[in-house]
């Protein structure tokens, strides 16, 4: 059972990757449910499956990223993208070399967490998210200041947020998926 579950999880992850970004796709929803059932059935995540599990969880959350009514965590203040960021952080830790793409995706998720709150009119929450996500480190400060200004303007359609759009986030994640799929071409069920 464990071996078959391992094969199925790998296959479900590949299918999720293939259908990611197809908004409202029945195929994505079907494979999301299969992957979630397989993940829920694991008593503990084997080391060789961690990246696969984390990628599935990331894709499931990013797909629901604009829906603030959807919750994956017991704390309802945690948005789907907030939750996705924690899985992205885990994926980054598992990578052998962290590339520019990793940093771009991290930044896009962080910016989109703020942007989605603003698009829904939750400006106070956007400010709280900004304070939580962006530290006072020198590398974070310029972006933090720009985002704070954007939140004060209460305009979610400013050029800064448009240049770091949700569709760009989806596109960057698809670029990462391509790399992941190349690494995992040996999936038993695909072969």
TrEMBL record:
Coiled coil segments of this chain: none
GO cellular component, one term: nuclear telomere cap complex
GO molecular function annotations of the record: ankyrin repeat binding; DNA binding, bending; double-stranded telomeric DNA binding; G-rich strand telomeric DNA binding; microtubule binding; protein homodimerization activity; telomerase activity
Biological process annotations from GO: negative regulation of DNA replication; negative regulation of telomeric D-loop disassembly; telomere maintenance via telomerase
Record key words, sorted: DNA-binding, Nucleus
Source taxon at top rank: Eukaryota
Domain Telomere repeat-binding factor dimerisation positions: 7-188
PANTHER family named among the record's database cross-references: TELOMERIC REPEAT-BINDING FACTOR 1, TELOMERIC REPEAT-BINDING FACTOR 1 TERF1
Protein name, UniProt field: TERF1 factor
Species in which this protein is naturally found: Urocolius indicus
Encoding gene, per UniProt annotation: Terf1
């Amino acid at each position: 059972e464990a071996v078959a579950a391992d094969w199925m999880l790998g296959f479900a992850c590949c299918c999720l990757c293939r259908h990611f970004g197809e908004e409202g796709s029945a195929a994505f929803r079907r494979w999301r449910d299969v992957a979630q059932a397989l993940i829920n059935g694991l008593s503990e995540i084997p080391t060789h499956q961690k990246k696969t599990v984390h990628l599935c969880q990331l894709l499931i959350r990013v797909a629901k990223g604009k829906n603030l009514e959807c919750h994956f965590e017991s704390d309802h203040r945690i948005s789907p993208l907030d939750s996705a960021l924690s899985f992205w952080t885990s994926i980054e830790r598992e990578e052998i070399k962290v590339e520019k793409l990793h940093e771009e995706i991290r930044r896009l998720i962080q910016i989109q967490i703020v942007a989605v709150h603003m698009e829904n009119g939750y400006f106070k929450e956007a400010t709280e998210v900004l304070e939580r996500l962006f530290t006072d480190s020198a590398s974070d400060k310029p972006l933090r200041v720009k985002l704070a200004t954007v939140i004060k303007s209460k305009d979610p359609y400013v050029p800064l947020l448009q240049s770091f759009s949700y569709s760009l986030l989806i596109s960057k994640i698809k670029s990462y998926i391509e790399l992941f799929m190349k690494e995992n071409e040996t999936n038993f069920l695909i072969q």
